């Protein structure tokens, strides 16, 4: 696994279609190089840094976290010297949807937090994780889908709490990559891309 970013020039994406009671959308096209500081740029109908934190999006996945597809450590702007370990465990298609499972482990030096817990929003310097899937062959970017009430199917960036030095498993739901796509890149904000993550079908 290799990771890295390049400046993004994302185009506004078209709706992927009607999913789950007509409420789930999340596929976009790329107008240039992928990756970069604004991986979620170009969301149709706006977007939100906070998604639904009450739909079982944290720690409830059946994915085997011992299976690590890609793992990397990045600087975390929450405090001086802070790091975050991210491991990608699974990307599995179920019908028209795909679930990405990854884990996050904060490594914040003593005194860097007000308590022993940190939210994704704070860990990433007052920004959400902005996770996207990128199909570099077909030049498509897949965003987190929304349900019929407009809630993104992912953990809440503000209210989800991650204990320092402990792993938290998180899952994000996307429109399934098109048939024939067996690998995509996983972009997590400006931390980098996990290349060639296999798509399980």
Structural overview:
This protein has one helix spanning 120-123, and strands spanning 27-29, 70-75, 83-94, 97-107, 117-118, 131-135, 140-142, 162-163, 168-175, 183-188, 192-198. Strands 1-7-6-10-11 form a five-stranded antiparallel beta sheet, with no helix packed on it. The protein has a four-stranded antiparallel beta sheet with strand order 2-3-4-9, with no helix packed on it. A two-stranded antiparallel sheet has the order 5-8. With 201 residues, it is mainly β. Mean pLDDT is 78; it is low at 1-25 and 30-56. It is built from one helix and eleven strands, in the order E-E-E-E-E-H-E-E-E-E-E-E. Helices cover 2% and strands 32% of the residues. It is globular. The chain has a single domain, classed as Immunoglobulin-like.
Work out the helicity level. under 10%
Secondary-structure class: mainly beta
Q: Average pLDDT across residues? A: 78
Order of helices and strands: EEEEEHEEEEEE
CATH top-level class = Mainly Beta
CATH topology: Immunoglobulin-like
Question: In the CATH hierarchy, what is the architecture at level 2?
Answer: Sandwich
Can you summarize the main beta sheet? 5 strands, antiparallel
Strand content: 25-35%
From the N-terminal CA to the C-terminal CA, the straight-line distance is: 21 Å
């Amino acid at each position: 696994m290799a990771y890295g970013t390049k400046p993004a020039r994302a185009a506004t994406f078209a709706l992927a279609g009607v999913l789950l009671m007509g409420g789930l959308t999340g596929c976009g096209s790329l107008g240039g190089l992928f990756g970069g500081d604004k991986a979620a740029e170009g969301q149709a109908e706006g977007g939100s840094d906070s998604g639904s934190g009450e739909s079982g999006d944290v720690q409830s996945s059946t994915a085997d976290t011992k299976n690590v597809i890609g793992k990397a450590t990045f600087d975390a702007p929450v405090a001086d010297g802070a790091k975050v370990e991210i491991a990608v465990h699974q990307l599995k298609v179920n019908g028209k949807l795909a679930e990405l499972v990854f884990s996050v482990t904060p490594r914040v030096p003593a005194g860097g937090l007000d308590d022993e817990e940190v939210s994704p929003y704070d860990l990433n310097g007052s920004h959400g994780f902005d996770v996207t899937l990128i199909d570099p062959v077909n030049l498509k970017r897949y965003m987190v889908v929304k349900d019929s009430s407009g809630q993104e199917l992912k953990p809440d960036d503000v209210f989800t709490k991650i204990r320092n030095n402990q792993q938290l498993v998180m899952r994000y739901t996307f429109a399934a990559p098109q048939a024939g796509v067996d690998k995509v890149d996983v972009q997590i904000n400006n931390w980098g891309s996990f290349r060639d993550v296999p798509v399980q079908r």
